[in-house]
Automatic annotation (TrEMBL):
Ranges where the Formyl transferase N-terminal domain occurs: 2-176
GO molecular function: methionyl-tRNA formyltransferase activity
Enzyme kind, highest EC tier: transferase
Keyword Transferase tagged: yes
HAMAP family: Formyl_trans (MF_00182)
Pfam families registered for this protein in UniProt: Formyl_trans_C (PF02911), Formyl_trans_N (PF00551)
Residues engaged in binding (6S)-5,6,7,8-tetrahydrofolate: 108-111
Gene that this polypeptide is encoded by: fmt
Organism in which the protein naturally occurs: Pseudoxanthomonas gei
PROSITE patterns in alphabetical order: GART
Family, similarity comment: Belongs to the Fmt family.
Transmembrane domains' residue ranges: none
Protein name: Methionyl-tRNA formyltransferase
Domain Formyl transferase C-terminal, residue spans: 203-300
Length: 306
């Protein structure tokens, strides 16, 4: 089976490996090289690095809307286009080129969390489970019928980064199953997504990582988990802006104004919220590295409480 793969970030790499193992990946599409890292030097995407290592030809068009790009894909005569976090819109003309259409590996249980950031939004919302869907693509945003799906529980202290890595591997497994069934011509009939329960996972914005103490501690604790390792929650704590890498919600009646320092010790730094308190366990000062609250308090002895 002649497979063309389209993906960009690290999440897509396990799926590229699965596709390579299940068929002939004749080309890999990925976004053009972008500035990355502190030095902002131009860097190839993780998918480009993986494809190059495996000897797979790489294409990096700015858009697939151009006729020249579509003609190049058509000339490859692909049986299937597998899309995993590619980041570019596929017009209908592209969806119609492969013999078996286009498949998408999506990190949620559709129709919940269509869109750009399903992993983080599931944690932020307090979902207890999520999963991966293998979807037959159509013109709408993540609206196509589902071919296969697999569910997994979300750990109570699981971060966005940890869940990302688990779902990347789970997505590769589901894709591998789908490709095996396709090759054996026993792929189940896709089932349409229900209209009820549709939610959208809007793209993450760095500004939303600023914690608002007027929210409940439970909500803020979920944000800390969801936004780790990016964009990383941050907040004003005792007059200093800190990045918050680890925190837990405390069911604590305090009567203090939101944002008030309630206690600070080896267990953490407790900040009053509209409901309960948030105990900061791992923090990062500007220009520093992530450290435990206890280590932070060694430099801020003015904050320690009995």
């Amino acid at each position: 089976m002649r497979i063309v793969f389209a993906g960009t970030p690290a999440f897509a790499v396990p799926s590229l490996r699965a596709a390579h193992a299940q068929g002939e990946v004749i080309a890999a599409y990925t976004q053009p090289d972008r500035p990355a890292g502190r030095g902002r030097g131009v860097a190839p995407s993780p998918v480009k690095l993986e494809a190059t290592q495996r000897g797979i030809p790489v294409l990096q068009p700015e858009s697939l809307r151009r006729k020249s790009s579509q003609d190049a894909l058509r000339e490859m005569a692909p049986d299937l286009l597998v899309v995993v976090a590619y980041g570019l819109i596929l017009p209908r003309a592209v969806l119609e080129i492969p013999r078996f259409g286009c498949w998408n590996v999506h990190a949620s249980l559709l129709p919940r969390w269509r869109g750009a950031a399903p992993i983080q939004r599931a944690i932020e919302a307090g979902d207890t489970e999520t999963g991966v869907c293998l979807m037959q693509m159509e013109a709408g945003l993540d609206t196509g019928p589902v071919l296969l799906a697999q569910t997994t529980l979300i750990g109570s202290d699981e971060t966005g980064g940890q869940l990302h890595d688990r779902l990347a591997e789970l997505g590769a497994s589901v894709l591998s199953d789908g490709l095996a069934l396709r090759r054996a011509d026993i792929l189940p009939k896709p089932w349409p997504q229900p209209e009820a329960g549709v939610t959208y996972a809007h793209k993450l914005d760095k500004a939303e990582a600023r914690l608002d103490w007027n929210q409940s501690a439970a909500v803020l604790a979920r944000k800390v988990l969801a936004f780790e390792p990016w964009p990383v929650a941050e907040a004003m704590v005792a007059g200093e802006r800190l990045r918050i890498h680890g925190a837990v919600a405390l069911d604590l009646a305090h009567g203090a104004a939101p944002g008030t320092l309630l206690a600070a010790g080896r267990q953490g730094i407790d900040i009053a919220c509209a409901d309960g308190a948030l105990r900061l366990r791992v923090v990062q000062r500007e220009g520093g590295k992530a450290i435990t609250a206890a280590d932070y308090l060694n430099a801020r002895r003015d904050l320690a409480t009995p």
